[in-house]
Fold this sequence. Notes:
two-stranded antiparallel ribbon; alpha+beta; 161 residues
Amino acid sequence: xxxxxxxxxxxxxxxxxxxxxxxxxxxxxxxxxxxxxxxxxxxxxxxxxxxxxxxxxxxxxxxxxxxxxxxxxxxxxxxxxxxxxxxxxxxxxxxxxxxxxxxxxxxxxxxxxxxxxxxxxxxxxxxxxxxxxxxxxxxxxxxxxxxxxxxxxxxxxxxxx
Length: 161
């Protein structure tokens, strides 16, 4: 029969980093991409919307506001966008039309606000960033009406199987 001291020793080992003997020795690194690359504040109305809306996939995650400094004479291609958000080289990036991302208008309040706040010159595009087999981030971005050198919008994190 085990003593209380043996049991306590077992618990202490199990609670150590790595879980003690035979436990998990390493935790996969979290991949976090950037949402802010400019010192300029994200417009308050955009921040407010992002605080109250969640994106639903296999999980629910709050939308995040995004403000990225970029020479908006054109929209960034996939590789420029990877650099802009500091995504890993293994991430697969695709550019989608806004309607392709939200074909049922589930997030109409978010997309309507973004269209009102951005220039019509290039429209709003969605960058789909596939980090691994199940984790995806969607960036909905347009050129800020008040600052042509800034992309503004949202990031939605998703789990997809």
